[in-house]
Specification:
By secondary structure, this protein is α/β, with parallel strands linked by helices. The protein has a single domain, classed as Rossmann fold, CATH 3.40.50.720. Helices cover 43% and strands 17% of the residues. It has 12 helices and 12 strands. Helix 4 packs parallel to helix 5.
């Protein structure tokens, strides 16, 4: 199989590239990434010399750049590429609309034109909005996005559905809960807090810190996408969650305890605009239909994640200094 993977230099995408190389060593992997600020080519160290792997720097909105790649023949597209940071979407919604909506539409057109066998749209539970103290998001929960980021992802999801219904494109949508693990750009909660704690800096926690997220170790997410790619029923949506609900304060406290740092480093800051209170995923469908099950309990996953960042100080320092951008420029 030849896979075109978009956003494969980002957090989840690069983990997926590494996962697929181990799980399916005979597959050809074509990695397309624009290497924007959150893309990091060093996430792919150790794989770039593989004869069955190729990296192409291109923007998913650029049909002319992507056309030759699809013309080579592509069996499936796994679409990770997206602007994904909620705070940035509040400041610049236009960037998120063009990248996440128009970029997805460009890929869908190329997949349809070149008769790609499967299109997997990697989305987010944030398209469902927010939950109260109880309940879970299911695949039939109405879309009710509350941030420009989640609205752009919901729009992209609806385009994927439309291309399935209108053109018969074999497409699936996965909607995951909050991922954590290696290679995550340190603007997101867990790597940001690890980095600050290691430097003995204040850890900024939004509001009262009691916002709840369902945490999913990134390798478990990759295994779910692998199953959807190979076994997903045409047109189906699959929620992927870890059933590991934790408040932000609980997550931060675990990080401080693991690093031997005092709770006095926690600094509450004004809450984010439109901050969703709670997300939680019902993943019974993918468990029952495709046999997926996460392998990393939260306690194991979070400890492994903290240790990865501790063990990779150069990766962390390159992000902080911007040196990773210079490495990106060579591609």
């Amino acid at each position: 199989m030849k896979l075109l993977i978009t956003g494969g230099a980002g957090f989840i995408g690069s983990n997926f590239v590494h996962y697929m190389r181990k799980a399916h060593p005979s597959y050809t992997l074509l990695n397309v990434d624009a290497l924007t600020y959150a893309g990091n080519i060093t996430n792919l160290d150790g794989i770039e010399s593989d004869a069955r792997y190729r990296f192409v720097r291109a923007d998913i909105r650029d049909a002319a750049a992507l056309e030759p790649l699809f013309a080579e023949g592509v069996d499936a597209v796994v679409h990770f590429a997206a602007e994904s940071h909620v705070d940035r979407s509040i400041l610049r919604p236009d960037v998120f609309v063009t990248a996440n909506v128009l970029g997805t539409q460009t890929l869908l057109d190329l997949a349809r034109t070149h008769r790609v066998g499967k299109f997997v749209q990697v989305s987010t539970d944030e398209v469902y909005g927010t939950l109260g103290a109880t309940g879970l998001f299911s695949e039939t929960t109405p879309l009710a996005p509350n941030s420009p980021y989640s609205a752009s992802k919901a729009a992209a999801d609806l385009l994927v559905r439309a291309y399935r219904e209108t053109y018969g494109l074999d497409a699936n949508i996965t909607r995951c809960s909050n991922n954590y693990g290696p290679y995550q750009f340190p603007e997101k909660l867990i790597p940001l807090m690890i980095a600050k704690a290691m430097r003995d800096e204040p850890l900024p926690v939004y509001g009262d810190g009691l916002n709840v997220r369902d945490w999913l170790y990134v390798e478990d997410h990759c295994s779910a996408i692998d199953l959807v790619l190979h076994k997903g029923a045409p047109g189906e949506v699959y929620n992927v969650g870890g059933r590991n609900e934790r408040t932000n304060l609980e997550v931060v406290s675990t990080i401080l305890e693991a690093l031997g740092k005092p709770a006095s480093l926690i600094a509450h800051v004004p809450d984010r605009l439109g901050h969703d209170r709670r997300y939680a995923i019902d993943a019974d469908k993918i468990r029952g239909d495709l046999g997926w099950a996460p392998q990393y309990p939260y306690e194991r996953g979070i400890r492994a994640t903290i240790q990865w960042y501790v063990d990779h100080p150069v990766w962390m320092a390159d992000i902080a200094s911007g040196a990773y951008r210079r490495k990106n420029e060579g591609h």
